[in-house]
Amino acid sequence: MSPRTGRPTDNKKGKPIHVRLDEKSDKILEKYVQQEKVSRAEAIRRGIMKLETELKE
Question: In degrees, to the nearest 5, what angle opens at C-alpha 42 toward C-alphas 46 and 11?
Fold first, then answer.
């Protein structure tokens, strides 16, 4: 059996993070996840992408 498992992808996600959320942030995240039918990880990635517009170069 091949050492690689899972679906092949061009967008590898190899940077794990751990975050502690307060109750309000967790409820907002959970509501978004249910509404958009995405994983918590995907919801967080989307939130990070929205921060890009606020970056100063």
Answer: 90
Kindly give, in sequence order, each residue whose CB lies less than 8 Å from that of residue 46, ignoring residues fewer than 6 positions away: 38
What is the model's pTM?
0.75
pLDDT digits (tens, 9 = 90+) for 12-54: 778 899 999 999 999 999 999 999 999 999 999 999 999 999 9
The span from the CA of 46 to the CA of 40, in Å, is 10
Neighbours of 50 (CB within 10 A): 9
When computed from its CA atoms, the radius of gyration of the chain, rounded to whole angstroms, is 15
Look at residues 42, 23, 22 and name the one whose alpha carbon lies nearest to residue 32: 42
For the chain, give every domain's residue range: 23-54
